[in-house]
Amino acid sequence: MMNFDSGLNRWSRAVTERTFSACSNRKNLMWLPLVPQIVLAAVLLLAPGLAIAWVLRLRSFDALALAPALSVGVIVLASTATPLLGLRYGLLPVGAVTILLAVAGFLAGRLTPVAVRPPEPGASPSQKWRQLAPFAAFAVAGALTALRTLQVIGTPGSISQTYDAVFHLNSVRFALDTGQASSLTIGAMTGGGFYPAGWNAVATYVASITATDVPVAVNITSVILASVFWPLSCLLMTTWIAGRRTAPTVLAGIACASLGAFPLLMMDFGVLYPNLLAISVLPACVALAARLTGSGAATGGPGQVPAVLALLLSLSGLVVAHPTTFMAWLLWTLPMAALSVYRSAPQFWKDRAIARRRFNIYVSAVFAYCALFLILWLTLRPPEEASFWGPYHTVAQALGEAILVAPMGLAPAWLVAPLALLGLWSCFQRPRSFAWAGLAFVIFSGIFVLVAGFPSSPIRNFVAGVWYNDSYRVAALLPVGAVLMVALGVDWAESQLRCGQWRVPAAPLLRRLRLPASLGRSPLIRLGGLAVLVVIAVAVGQQGSVKHEAGQASTRYAISSDSPLVSADELELIHRLPQTVPSDSTLIGNPYTGAALSYALSGRKAAQLHILSYVSPELEEIYNNLGSIAADPEVCAAVEHEKAFYVLDFGTKEVHGGEHTPRGLTHLDSNPGLQLIDSEGDAKLYEITACGA
Questions:
Q1: CB proximity list for 421: less than 8 A, separation 6 or greater
Q2: How far is residue 160 from each of residues 4, 216, 389, 577, 643, measured CA to CA in Å?
Q3: For a disulfide at 133, which of 6, 246, 384, 624, Cβ 3.0-4.6 Å?
């Protein structure tokens, strides 16, 4: 027995070391001074939603788990209202909106009774553990996801070396400078109009309350969304739909931290920060919809009126965080609605003669839902020219990746895939309760196969054009269904064991080992067995998909001499801009090379704050004719108009490997109208001297 314990301990330590060796390095120690800011940001991000959930009379874990979705709704409303009221966006507007909504929720929450039952004083140990299981599952899932997220980001000040990072980081600086993070104002940064700025509002809120630099605030936001919002939302979905048993809850928590497709994939590709926010609260919105349609097995939760209010607030945040994720939620409601109609239609039809008015309302509601679904599906989508993505690989490969929950070339999810398939099987063993969930999982898997494996066509565009026909965006939606399938599969397997359908010969085994038969019924033994299963599940879950994606995504944040967006030399030069460039000056540079990030990283405004920003006629003049500035007075007039007396030269290497260097920004070293005033390696800063002071 001693040898067995010693071997088990050595094995456990070896698994832990192998699993997290990439996270136990000096880079992670750099996060330690930021722990207070991370905790503060997490608390202040959860507080608005927690307050509203509390006045809606949700309690315990339900209130905590619904808080992220509600908080996003509060933050979106606060950020949208501040420019209309002439206020600066920040902690005070968010607090004011929280108080107003809490008062409204308090009044509305009294309109209907709540099914929440407080724990009885004499609860058994198993009942107490069931109440604590979601908290324990969240602690495990949060810790695992946080470690992987830190592994991906590396140092607190790292930036994503990707195309969309230019816009997202600059938008946070723009919101801090203007005091506005509204969807009505963020678009002005690039010369555009409305832009769904849910993530921008959340990241700006974090930056304002933590007083950290833009890259640090963005990374803190990513850590919280991945390791707090996502696990809480997943556990709310699984406990409200699959039930509150201990084993399904714990396995669902481990599963949501064991998939590479989300949240890590959205920190890798793009970078798609808005999708990271939206999908992190999508499971909570699915849970609320299931609660309202009676599509779950769990008891407790809010009454109908509080649930409607919570869903409306959550959806207001979801649609502004990212409209395509709202459409994913809408698609989740389709099998729910179908099951609800399947259950209720026969009785309504039977009673149509004696309850004609009620029957007409029912039929009208069904047709209204179908019409609204179709209208939104056809209209709430990006333009076709933005949905240009083609297939990623073959149909067979896409199908295999969907089955293994390993999209976009990831390694198989060794823990989640078999349990998700078990869950899919169990859904159709209990069709009246869970066939809708299995159908939803199949629908999203089918959409992934369509978009990743089939060539462009009208059908492909009709189905997947909502998500830009982009395999990555659809791939990130698969984990929502997979986590729910894990919970349903484990719950079904446990129910089979409890009712004796699957018999485990524990008693003969105990007799052979000369141990008392009562040992198998001991709560401590059961708890120990669960702990062993948790260790095994964590060890298996952290291999494959999530390990693969963590290693792959970490390369996107690495700052080196050859980084695709901003190299180490370029970053060093940018950090010196506050000492070399006046605060009211504008910097000229090719935004594809990362020069536009001078704004987010140093506060010195770039002429284009996004790679595809609007280019004024004056800026166009500079881009085209800076090389002839000494002979062309119109160039100096444009320079003076834009206050653009400085040029950043980051060479010709662009983030996507293209060639977009304007004619006027070539051969800067031989331009007589420019003077080199700072350099770091190949990165150079010039001052335009031909136009006087």
A1: 403, 485, 489
A2: 46, 12, 22, 21, 29
A3: 246
